[in-house]
């Protein structure tokens, strides 16, 4: 079965947590991918909660995933709350953008 937008969201969260910039760039849609991606080495991503999904299944062409990602840095603890948009092209899902 084809992967889903939620599976891509989870794998991208893991990539942020371990600092895998190459994976993040590879799964970012080319139309919205930043030229440079510099992750903060001092930010630790500690939890991911999927709040809601809309479409994004194996037979959909697009989808949205709302999530909360908890983090900790030397200066603060916080939660990134975003509604991310994804698109599927050629059988692969790509992150497009999101609203924080």
Summarize this, please?
By secondary structure, the chain is an alpha+beta fold. The chain contains two helices and four strands.
Write the layout of secondary structure elements.
Elements: H1 5-18, H2 21-26, E1 44-55, E2 62-72, E3 77-89, E4 92-99
Antiparallel strand pairs: 1-2, 2-3, 3-4
Task: Write up what this structure looks like.
The mean pLDDT is 95. The chain has a four-stranded antiparallel β-sheet with strand order 1-2-3-4, with helices on one face. It has two helices and four strands. The radius of gyration is 13 Å and the shape is globular. The longest helix is centred in the N-terminal third of the chain and has 14 residues, at 5-18. It has 100 residues and is of the alpha+beta class.
